[in-house]
Design goal:
The complex is a heterodimer of chains A (305) and B (257).
Chain A: E1 2-6, E2 9-10, E3 13-14, H1 17-27, E4 31-38, E5 49-54, H2 55-58, H3 63-77, E6 81-85, H4 90-101, E7 104-109, E8 111-113, E9 116-121, E10 126-132, E11 137-141, E12 157-160, E13 170-175, E14 189-193, H5 203-212, E15 216-219, H6 221-225, E16 246-250, H7 256-262, E17 267-272, E18 285-288, H8 291-304
Parallel strand pairs in A: 1-4, 1-6, 4-5, 5-12, 6-11, 7-11, 14-15, 14-16, 16-17, 17-18
Antiparallel strand pairs in A: 2-3, 8-9, 9-10
Chain B: E1 2-7, E2 9-11, E3 33-35, H1 37-53, E4 57-64, H2 68-78, E5 82-87, H3 96-107, E6 114-118, H4 129-137, E7 140-151, E8 154-160, E9 166-172, E10 175-179, H5 191-197, E11 202-206, E12 217-223, E13 232-234, H6 238-252
Parallel strand pairs in B: 1-4, 1-6, 4-5, 5-11, 6-10, 7-10
Antiparallel strand pairs in B: 2-3, 7-8, 8-9
Helix pairs in contact in B: 2-5, 3-4
The chains are: A alpha/beta (305), B alpha/beta (257).
Chain lengths: 305, 257
């Protein structure tokens, strides 16, 4: 099989997820070429042809131009699979390319078994095996699902590409990350609140347990979206990535976007009423309980030690 | 101004799922159903846009069996003006390309100025339909928005990227937005608005009149992930649980020493 890997560049940096695409091609035993809109001074370590366009000319977000150049490369390389990361870049561009190619797109692939693409469904509670019916297939890979066994190496053979396609939308720059507040990345103990806390007043309960343990408190996305606490406490893809010695997830179901942010924790305790919650998959202890009872009881006991 | 919002009815993700007899989708029996969470933000943004511009008509579209009308009524109670129910008892088996083609076939003759969709559904989670609809219609689209402003036909949106970064993207109407969680604060329908919604137009369209394409992919099997195990599951009395957790933490981590 032949694959075309679509590397990713953001905010002036080549993204490490680009190597997850290489790992996927290796895993399925496919040949590959790569496409990247990036900078010539910062190319991926990769042995193969790299179809390259300058990001200063084509911008980090210009789906029309990126799609047009990809179509040219696909016509030249005739890959059976075109592989993106399931990221803000990938899930935006992949459907545009898939439609132009009249190809199936299979999103958030986590495995490839017996010719089936495996994808999570229903907040990772279920899996689906999916088969494409088209000669070419566009896939996006779940972040972290594939990894290189060693360090990336090699030097690509550059083939420069261009397009005169004009942008349909205008990329007007980035808005910087909210600065200040809590740096959870250095915390050794984190107690995090999820939607299961039920109401904003219960943040205090979570903060109290964190304090009793000498740690910080964090939150999952729904808690931040509901403005029950500030964004700089959010753990996950769009928040902070943490690696504490102890992570206590209270009422957090364990959406992949959250797991990505905390799976490097050394020890994970999950408190959840749902025994099947995906957080149980990565927890060292899953306490099936109402956090509103267990958290205060645990706090009192720890204070008394 | 004409606005279209697409909504999907999905199970509550806290539900206890079972795989159906065909082995390719979940069993719908006993599931609590609700509006796809992402779509609530889409509905809210459409209604806010209507309130901003004054003269606007918001159509809500949903594909599925009769049960999706419940979800459509919620959208109407939130402030949408009319509903289009695409009647399809097997919509769950359709792939994102078919679903997008159905929506685009409906939308193409209605010259909508703005279309809002969720960025993905909570059950399938393909994150394709919105962008595909726009591409089929040849319309500009911005995905995963967390901020939206509209000024005289000019959209300025913020796309949510990873690590807290946002991209500022501008587009001219007609355009399609796929909405990310946190875009706004979806309103709760008030009782008077729920009553008013009952009188709003809810048109039914047979899916066969809109579907002119074949599926490009198929689900061959649905199943539960293998439990990787390793973790200790504690159940029962909370007092005992507290002692067990503390003993394990003392034993396995350095944090309580």
């Amino acid at each position: 099989m032949k694959t075309l890997l679509v590397g990713e560049y953001r905010d002036g940096k080549l993204l490490g997820s680009t190597y997850e695409l290489v790992a996927f091609a290796e895993k399925i035993g496919a040949d590959s070429a790569m496409f990247l809109v990036g900078r010539e001074s910062d190319l991926p370590q990769y042995n193969g042809i790299l179809y390259f366009a300058d990001i200063l000319k084509y911008s980090e977000f210009n789906p029309t131009a990126h799609k047009q150049m990809l179509l040219e490369v696909v016509a030249k390389e005739q890959p059976e699979m075109i592989v993106f990361s399931h990221s803000s870049y990938g899930w935006d561009l992949a459907p545009r390319l898939a439609l132009a190619l009249k190809a199936a797109q299979v999103s958030e692939v986590i495995d490839f078994v017996d010719g089936n693409l495996v994808v999570p469904t229903c907040n990772s509670k279920l899996r689906r095996d999916v088969k494409s019916k088209t000669a070419q297939t566009v896939v996006t890979l779940q972040g972290g699902a594939f990894g290189l066994s060693g360090e990336p190496s090699g030097a690509p053979t550059l083939v420069k590409i261009e397009t005169d396609a004009t942008a349909q939308v205008e990329f007007a720059g980035y808005e910087a990350v909210e600065k200040g507040g809590v740096d959870l990345s250095k915390a050794e103990i984190i107690v995090s609140a999820g939607r299961g806390i039920g109401k904003p007043e219960n943040i205090e309960m979570i903060a109290n347990l964190a304090q009793a343990l000498g740690g910080e408190y964090g939150a999952s996305r729904p808690v931040v979206d509901a403005e029950w606490t500030e964004h700089n406490r959010q753990v996950g893809t769009t928040g902070q990535t943490v690696s504490p010695k102890l992570y206590i997830a209270c009422g957090i179901s364990g959406a992949i976007q959250h797991l990505v942010g905390m799976k490097k924790s050394e020890f994970v305790v999950a408190i959840n009423t749902d025994r099947d919650a995906p957080i149980g998959e990565i927890a060292d202890i899953l306490a099936v309980a109402d956090l509103k009872e267990l958290v205060p009881a645990l706090t009192e006991k720890i204070k008394s030690l | 101004m004409k606005i279209l919002v697409c909504v999907k009815q999905v199970p509550d993700m806290e539900s206890k799922f079972r795989v159906n007899d065909g082995g390719k989708w979940y069993d719908e029996a006993d599931l609590a159903l609700r509006m796809n969470e992402y779509d609530e933000y889409a509905v809210e943004q459409a209604v806010q846009l209507k309130e901003q511009v004054g003269e606007a008509d918001v159509t809500i579209l949903s594909i599925g069996s009769d049960r999706v009308k419940e979800t459509m009524k919620k959208a109407l109670a939130m402030g949408c003006d009319r509903g289009v129910h695409v009647v399809d008892d097997t919509s769950y088996a359709k792939d994102p390309f078919e679903i997008a083609s159905i929506i685009a076939a409906f939308a193409k003759d209605h010259s909508f100025d703005m279309i809002f969709t969720g960025m993905q559904s909570q059950d399938r989670g393909s994150a394709q339909v919105g962008v595909l609809v726009a591409e089929i219609l040849g319309m500009s689209s911005i995905s995963t928005i967390v901020e939206f402003t509209f000024d005289n036909g000019q959209v300025t949106a913020r796309r949510e990227l990873e690590g807290g970064l946002k991209a500022i993207v501008k587009a001219k109407a007609p355009a399609l937005m796929t909405c990310q969680l946190g875009l706004n604060t979806p309103r709760y329908p008030t009782l008077p608005n729920i009553m008013k919604a009952k009188k709003k137009e809810l048109l039914s369209v047979e899916v066969a009149t809109l579907l002119q394409v074949d599926a490009v992919q198929e689900t061959t099997r649905m199943y539960f992930p293998e439990k990787k195990g390793g973790g200790i599951v504690l159940e029962g009395d909370v007092g005992n649980m507290v002692n067990e957790i503390i003993n394990i933490l003392k034993d396995k981590t350095g944090v309580l020493t």
